[in-house]
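Retry 2 of 3 after timeout on previous attempt. Resubmitting structure tokens to design endpoint.
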């Protein structure tokens, strides 16, 4: 299968991610059982679209999407078509952008919907045939879009494990067991893609000794969570973790309570990011799923944002959980669209992780408490493997 993606006459400030769209198209082709077929997609301007519309359909002005089937097939006889080309889809990004604003969608959501629409036309669906056919096509479109938002077709979501709570148990006794450094090694052997520790100002769990040893022993990726405080910044610059995640830190809190208010402290955080970046340390910012915080994170030079999943995990009813999940899904899409890389975490457990892991805009999940507490009963190796399996399954295309 070859999916040819061309972007023509579309200003750069649209920030269209070919990578995300390509991944989605590949998923759609698989889902529609035509993954062995080729397809060409052109994203263009209203001006060019008007030309196509007038030339091929004798209609004035632009439209959102046009499909040109390579052969006259329908979904029933596709398997018998010998030419393995579906045809061309042309989309006006100008029109898609206006529609995205009108329907309160991100540009990638809108483009995805238009691609689905165009693709179904190539497969023989035609809403102009009759109201019944229009209804049928719309139903399939809606179903595909809902499924797709919950699926990914590229590499697996990564699991980074926060080992703070191993240190919490150690500190409760004030001795040297259990050792988070040994725990980190077990997590890596069981398939973790990264280790996360939060070196707090009050050193309530992770100690300076832990981060020094982890820097030497972690083979995957060491992510240092930290408040943007002078002493900790100096430690991070010396330590050179693979990345840092800036989090808010209050002495009285039991755990990180909310995302950072980036918009309210852009100058201070921007300076911290600048220093980290000079030392080649990429910075992630832990934020609530909020548009304003995403924009500010981008403006001050963050490489990643980590979207706070706490409210979704803590929801007491399914209705609230769905609402919070939609905030996460939308924020991840918006952040991804700006070019930020997207992680997520906080409060995720064995029942809440799958849904978040299935979002194709999220690269990595940071999970601690649920895995360490399960490890008390099952062993750490088993607890990590069970979480990995949940993520793996959530990433599968059904
Ligand atoms: N991400 C961030 C930024 C955190 O502060 C924490 C908690 O330390 C986590 C993820 C992991 O949360 P949990 O321990 O609830 O899985």
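Retry 2 succeeded. Sequence:
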């Amino acid at each position: 299968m070859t999916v040819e993606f061309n972007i023509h006459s579309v200003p750069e400030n649209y920030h269209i991610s070919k990578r995300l769209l390509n991944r989605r198209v590949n998923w759609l082709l698989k889902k529609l059982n035509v993954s062995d077929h080729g397809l060409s997609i052109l994203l263009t301007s209203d001006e060019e679209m008007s030309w196509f519309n007038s030339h091929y359909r004798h209609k004035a002005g632009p439209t959102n999407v046009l499909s040109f089937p390579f052969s006259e097939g329908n979904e029933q006889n596709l398997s018998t078509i010998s030419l393995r080309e579906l045809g061309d889809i042309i989309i006006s990004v100008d029109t898609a952008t206006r529609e995205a604003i009108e329907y309160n969608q991100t540009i990638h959501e809108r483009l995805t919907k238009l691609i689905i629409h165009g693709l179904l036309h190539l497969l023989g669906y035609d809403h102009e045939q009759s109201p019944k056919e229009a209804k049928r096509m719309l139903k399939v479109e809606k179903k595909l879009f809902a499924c797709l938002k919950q699926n990914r077709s590229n590499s697996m979501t990564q699991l980074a494990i926060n080992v703070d709570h191993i240190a919490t148990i150690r500190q409760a006794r004030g001795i040297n067991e259990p050792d988070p450094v040994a725990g980190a090694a077990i997590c890596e052997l069981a398939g973790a893609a990264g280790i996360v520790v939060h070196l707090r100002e009050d050193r309530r769990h992770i100690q300076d000794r832990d981060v020094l040893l982890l820097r030497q022993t972690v083979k995957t990726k060491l992510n240092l969570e930290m408040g943007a405080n002078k002493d900790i910044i100096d430690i991070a610059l010396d330590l050179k973790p693979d990345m840092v995640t800036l989090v808010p830190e209050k002495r009285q809190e039991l755990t990180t309570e909310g995302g950072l208010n980036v918009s309210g402290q852009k100058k201070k955080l921007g300076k911290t990011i600048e220093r980290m970046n000079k030392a080649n340390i990429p910075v992630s910012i832990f934020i609530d799923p909020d548009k304003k915080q995403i924009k500010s994170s981008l403006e001050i030079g963050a490489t990643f944002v980590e979207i706070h999943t706490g409210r979704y995990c803590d929801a007491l009813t399914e209705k609230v959980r769905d609402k919070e999940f939609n905030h996460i899904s939308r924020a991840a899409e918006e952040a991804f669209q700006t070019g930020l890389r997207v992680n997520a975490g906080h409060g995720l457990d064995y029942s809440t992780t799958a849904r978040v892991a299935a979002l194709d805009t999220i690269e990595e999940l940071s999970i601690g408490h649920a895995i360490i507490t399960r490890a008390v009963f099952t062993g750490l190796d088993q607890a990590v493997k069970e979480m990995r399996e949940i993520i793996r399954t959530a990433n599968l295309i059904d």
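Attempt log closed. The two ends are 19 Å apart (CA to CA).
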